[in-house]
Amino acid sequence: MSESRPARTGDGATVHGLHVVIDGAPAAPPLLLIHGSGATGSTWSPVVPTLATKYRVITIDLPGCGRSEPASTYAVAQQADRTAAVLDELGFRNVKVVGHSSGGYVATALVERRPDLVGELVLVSTGPSRTALLPEPTIVKVLASPPFGPLVWAIRTDSMIRRGLAATAAAPITVPDAAVVDLRRTTYRGLRAILAANMDYLVAGTVPERLMAAGKPLLVIFGDADPRWDPTSAHQYEAVPGAKLEYLRGIGHVAMLEDHDALARSILGHTL
Predict the structure, then answer these.
(1) CA–CA separation, 11 vs 159, rounded Å?
(2) What is the greatest pairwise CA distance in the chain?
């Protein structure tokens, strides 16, 4: 296969227990996409083809999500270590790491624990601190929170999954069928453990605080109509030396599903 044309690993492979899909020319610089809480790598699929014109795009399912194996702990540091093991196994270095929502915490922990692997960091709709969190949309609360969460999770329909994602958006979205299938694989117990671990990570230190001394180029992308995290809180990242901040107009929390072209342009259009 010619290295000048995008190549794909088909349905992906399992590396150290994590499901991995790789797109793009083998000689292109590597870019890692990390999804948020309870999501899967397949939620990135609308933006991958454009990114793969320039990068070797690595998409993973985090532990306990989608087609990846569950974990004994979902602490953010351990999620980052599992991700690092995948990059080590595949031989990637100087990776441009893009984290969406709480996937940005795993990306940040990767910078903290394995700075040798990360060249640049892009955070998409990643809440910087606990105080920035907004009240959950009703359907999200019903799906993910006690006391009704376990029962509703067990009987949830494809329509409910799509509505749950749509509740975090500000613009109409189309959820790929493959993403719905993968989202069904995540267990309620796993989701609750992941959410708790993410909050523990934020309580221990805000994301800007963690990145201040990291010395990594940072781009922060936020929807100006995000219903999950206060959009104005993105300015907290200005405390990180050299950080760049970009708002996507009329976009909520899931830019890759709301306007994948705009998100791809933002990721591709910045030289950090």
Answers:
(1) 24
(2) 54
Neighbour tally for 126: CB within 10 Å: 25
183 Cβ neighbours under 8 A, 6+ residues apart: 38, 39, 40, 43, 66, 161
Strand partners, 221: 124, 246
What predicted TM-score, i.e. pTM, was given to this entire model?
A: 0.94
User: Cis omega before residue 30 (within 30°)?
Assistant: no
Distance CA 157, CA 3 (A): 41
Mean pLDDT over 103-113 rounds to: 98
DSSP E strands, the chain:
7-8, 13-15, 18-24, 30-34, 56-60, 95-100, 118-124, 218-223, 244-248
User: How is the chain split into domains, by residue range?
Assistant: 7-269
Query: Over the stretch 152-190, which tens digit does the pLDDT of each residue have?
Result: 888 889 998 999 999 999 999 999 999 999 999 999 999
C-beta atoms surrounding 85 within 10 Å: 15
Tokens of 255: 């830019």
Fold (CATH) for 7-269: Rossmann fold (3.40.50)
Instruction: Tell me how far apart the terminal alpha carbons of the chain are, to the nearest angstrom.
Output: 31
CA 158 to centroid of chain Cα atoms = 21
d(CA 196, CA 108): 17
Of residues 133, 153, 158, the one with CA closest to residue 143: 153
